[in-house]
Amino acid sequence: MAKVAIVYHSGYGHTKLLAEAVAKGAASVAGTKVDLVPVEEADAKIEILNAADAIIFGSPTYMGDVSGQFKTWADTTAKVWFGQGWKDKIAAGFTNSGNLSGDKLNTLQTMWALAMQHSMIWVSLGVMPKTEKDGLVLNRLAGYGGAFSISENAAPGPDNPDKGDIATGAALGQRVAEVTKKFKG
Amino acid sequence: MAKVAIVYHSGYGHTKLLAEAVAKGAASVAGTKVDLVPVEEADAKIEILNAADAIIFGSPTYMGDVSGQFKTWADTTAKVWFGQGWKDKIAAGFTNSGNLSGDKLNTLQTMWALAMQHSMIWVSLGVMPKTEKDGLVLNRLAGYGGAFSISENAAPGPDNPDKGDIATGAALGQRVAEVTKKFKG
Amino acid sequence: MAKVAIVYHSGYGHTKLLAEAVAKGAASVAGTKVDLVPVEEADAKIEILNAADAIIFGSPTYMGDVSGQFKTWADTTAKVWFGQGWKDKIAAGFTNSGNLSGDKLNTLQTMWALAMQHSMIWVSLGVMPKTEKDGLVLNRLAGYGGAFSISENAAPGPDNPDKGDIATGAALGQRVAEVTKKFKG
Amino acid sequence: MAKVAIVYHSGYGHTKLLAEAVAKGAASVAGTKVDLVPVEEADAKIEILNAADAIIFGSPTYMGDVSGQFKTWADTTAKVWFGQGWKDKIAAGFTNSGNLSGDKLNTLQTMWALAMQHSMIWVSLGVMPKTEKDGLVLNRLAGYGGAFSISENAAPGPDNPDKGDIATGAALGQRVAEVTKKFKG
Description:
The structure is a homotetramer.
Chain A: E1 2-8, H1 14-27, E2 32-38, H2 39-42, H3 46-51, E3 54-62, E4 65-66, H4 68-76, H5 78-82, E5 90-97, H6 104-117, E6 121-123, E7 131-133, E8 136-138, E9 147-150, H7 163-184
Parallel strand pairs in A: 1-2, 1-3, 3-5, 5-6, 5-9
Antiparallel strand pairs in A: 3-4, 7-8
Helix pairs in contact in A: 1-7
């Protein structure tokens, strides 16, 4: 059984939809247990993260980086870092924001730096830009280090973020579950 | 009169000492008005930032990036960003953390991304690594995009952060004030 | 007279079109002298760069960073760096690549790091995402630290890169010239 | 048998010493085949890289990023990228330069971006800052995403780079070999 935890912040619900897609993608791999942990509950549910084989980080990109809520939670993991409790866990990341490229890469770099401090192992997206699948376009934003999505300035819904972006999140979740399974042996 | 504001977060007081050095350096330039604004007061004192010619960002590096407190404040500047109220202001940055390089550069990259979203103009440190001045070693950490300091795991004091690192902060403050003055004409 | 130099590499001609647009934008500001310097000639024309008030860096994004040709040239500037010959010059950057966001931000971060080592002053793009102007959409890629363009996998031409992306380059050139003029007094 | 290839550039021989330490660390893990490939030979020896289970990237930090030689080689891997020939290989990185932190992190970010484009899996250093081992101090530079070393401005030798930095490289090599072995099952 490979355990995949997704810890994320969502301000208006768009990143939550992406997080749920990542979870669904991970759950599609046989023998995978998936936990979705909003950052607001992450301190209380730290045992879920500590027990996970993989932790996937998710946050909106606000002002060019992870959100304050995500970062505030990330800072609390210094306790775990001190004892290197997450060493060798698999890591990955995703982010949503309101425009094309923006500074989404800086958000992933911050998540990567966090994962590196925890001595984790970072999994790439593994989907080439503009890959077509089931009538959708995956990775239209040409991310490589993780999954990117765009939300329009409207309530979250079945087309917001875009269906292809959502499917990109699912592909990331599936890939992380597969890599984790292989790594656990 | 060139107005320089320093907005910073300090968890244990080390970054505060660096912030005060930056302020002192800026104030050493004739015709400069300097304001030190802790992030806890930054929302209430937003008019000081809005009126400034230069804003210098300061934060500890926690888990590889600016602190959650700094980032939470940075997110509130989205209101200003929307109207591009800080366009053409001068920007710069500094950070303190408990080890040599760590991921201090990622912290500066996040501050730079923030400044770029606000359409600001970013000033480099302008001090070569290991520059000797008044018996101190400036920029021993070989930063270029801003000022770096190291604190030992002990209460802040006259040698914590190191005197040379503190002097590096003062050099950054002085440089920003000089550039701002020149830019204002 | 403000002197703006644009030093760029172009593999297939798309980045060259963007460089020419940046040059045109800069030249549109009265009292600006503009030089376009391909990296292949940059060593021979180093005096042009040394005499410039502003240097704008341009490169394709290849494999997530500036091109090898651009980087090979950048390394030769270590001689100038040693004497800090470009200190206080204005800097900016632009990049072109074949997909949306890709890792264009990493390219700008590399150019920024180069400018910081030279103790330069970095100017942001200053154009909000999806700004409409003269029937074109500027900054559709939501860059902030510099100008981004996309080229299709075809010969360069009037629509490749996209006209709005090209106009974004012109806006960057104009802004750099204006800031440089103001800074020179 | 886990195959680990180290592809590196060294301008003056310091990074070569670090590369050799990484190789020695990897070879210390039973059942590991190690190949050291200077970038000058990497095009001719591409089959070694294509057959490897793990590729470790090494470069000096020049002007804030990988060297021009390293980047020029990295660009040639676009052919492999197009067919995603390195998908799921393990990746890691190391860099040497003449000062403390400098912009070494930017060099690692560039190597990480390269690895992500190739859909690889990135392994962290996994050694806490200032770890003492066999009378040496490992990771004194507080890197997390890879191994950092400093060289003095003198010929390479048994103390240049520092013995602790060299041992940090060996620790990275060992860790990559262990992770690769586990991942191969």
